[in-house]
Amino acid sequence: xxxxxxxxxxxxxxxxxxxxxxxxxxxxxxxxxxxxxxxxxxxxxxxxxxxxxxxxxxxxxxxxxxxxxxxxxxxxxxxxxxxxxxxxxxxxxxxxxxxxxxxxxxxxxxxx
Length: 112
What we know:
This protein has one helix spanning 26-31; strands at 5-7, 10-12, 18-23, 34-39, 46-51, 57-59, 67-72, 77-82, 91-97, 101-102, 106-110. The protein is mostly beta strands.
């Protein structure tokens, strides 16, 4: 079973930063776009950011200018740098490959 291994979630105060990481098998990482989704309590899962195998990126309007998605092709890892975090960013964040494979999720909580 293909696994995406996420890390980097936690509890931070508003305005602080976190960096999420997601490691994938090479066969998946090289051939699929990678993305981060999030799901807050009582809400539907939503796309936060995506990056193609060629490095093109897309962001949800709510995170533009604050979040940056990137990929390290040598390490088969995708990152998301999250700056200026807000309480409304609180959610479980999921790594995704090709809209097919999902990680287990990592909790991000922004609270004072």
